[in-house]
Amino acid sequence: MRFTKILSYPMAIVLTAAGTAWEARADMALTSKELLGKALFFDTGLSTPPGQACADCHGPDVGWTGPDQDINLHGGVYEGAVKTRFGNRKPPSAAYASFSPIFHRDETGNFVGGNFWDGRATGEKLGTPVADQAQGPFLNPLEQNNSSPLDVCQKVVASNFAGQITGVSYSDLFTHSFGPGSLDCNNPLDTYDRIALAIAAYEASSEVSSFSSKYDAYLKGRTTLTKQERKGLALFEGKAKCSNCHTTKGLGHGRSLPLLTDFTYENIGVPKNSENPFYNMPAEYNPKGITWLDIGLGGFLANRPDFSQYADANKGKQKVPTLRNVDKRPSLVHLKAYMHNAAFKSLKEVVHFYNTRDMLSGCDENSQPKPGINCWPAPEVATNVNRTEMGDLNLSDEDEDAIVAFLRTLSDGFQPTGHDSD
Ligand code: HEC
Ligand code: HEC
Hints:
Blueprint: H1 2-7, H2 10-17, H3 32-42, H4 69-73, E1 104-105, E2 111-112, H5 129-134, H6 136-139, H7 149-158, H8 161-166, H9 170-178, H10 188-204, H11 214-219, H12 227-237, E3 250-252, E4 255-258, E5 265-266, H13 297-302, E6 318-319, H14 347-356, E7 361-362, E8 375-376, H15 397-407
Parallel strand pairs: 7-8
Antiparallel strand pairs: 1-2, 3-4, 5-6
Helix pairs in contact: 3-9, 3-10, 7-10, 12-15, 14-15
């Protein structure tokens, strides 16, 4: 199925239609390194046992996050290549993650940048967080479960996936991207770095991080927003304070278009998701069992001698995710999940939570609790909850709907119509 999906990409068709596939490169939207990264991203042969690609947890149809509705409805956490093994968080989008700066503490004392919900893919090794990140999943026993970089290298050498989908073998793609002999399993660590750099290039490419939403078209003056969307945007940047963190200003990085995140960390008080399968993982992976708490950034800082003194002040904080593609789905009814633990299942619910979190009583104190209606469950981590920018926004139901309407303009692949098209 995934295979068919790839073939349906116009670029792949150009390639297979061309005489010698490689000569077609000049017509392609992707560079050789991006194309190599793409093959690695979609190749289901690079796991142990085979069967799991990056794309299984980061599907294009849903904005490069978790595609499976049944999983999203419950724990929101995806099974690894070894069935029955689960990680502990919902996959964030792999798009726009490339724009996150190297993890650092800024002049105001706030932590910024990195990849993963807790920032632990810092970018200190390979120069960008996405490249550091890309080395994680292949070796993670809860994800693609390979034993070593050598194991991954040998699987790439043995795989004919790139040849099948692009008409160019992995070996040729490596040569064109990194020079002759660069797919070399005698130096598996260097090759493993190249694998990560190629994936990072693909994630930053115009195919994954395409800045092609209705909102982008609007910013470029190529389309107009509806009245409700404009109202939502005004609230987003005003009364509802969303853009304090999901910033609508261009952040630089050579792009003036906004990323809808400032790559900082906050504890917004998201409740626990008791359906997280990680609670039931064996002690080898989850020694704390059902008492496990996701302390986010605080947990990563505690493991870093240079930052451990800041761990307590950052306990419970998670990275501000981009809101680009937050509503991207293959059909209107396709269910997605939100937050690091997939506790919320709709954008309306998310906005209602921001609006009323501190207005409603706790569900524990309520004899007939109806979450989101007469109560909200307690935060997963009670410390460091942001109480100044959210929780009691005094928005009407129509205001909430308008914000949701604006969030829907953030899905890539918008086709301007009528005179707007170009
Ligand atoms: C089994 C599901 C699974 C697979 C397979 C998987 N991921 Fe992920 N990915 C996740 C989860 C879960 C996280 C968040 C983990 C965390 O924060 O601790 C994540 C985080 C990321 C991020 C960080 C985004 C950000 O904004 O911080 C990127 C980028 C990413 N994955 C890319 C990849 C790539 C590339 C591969 C293949 C080499 C891959 N993923 C394989 C589940 C998966
Ligand atoms: C103080 C910073 C801050 C503000 C203000 C803020 N957010 Fe967030 N937002 C976050 C953080 C941090 C997360 C992730 C929290 C978690 O997973 O525990 C998040 C997550 C989300 C998500 C889930 C995205 C996903 O991929 O799972 C949505 C949607 C969202 N915010 C929308 C909004 C809207 C709409 C507003 C305004 C009403 C808003 N946010 C205001 C920091 C903020």
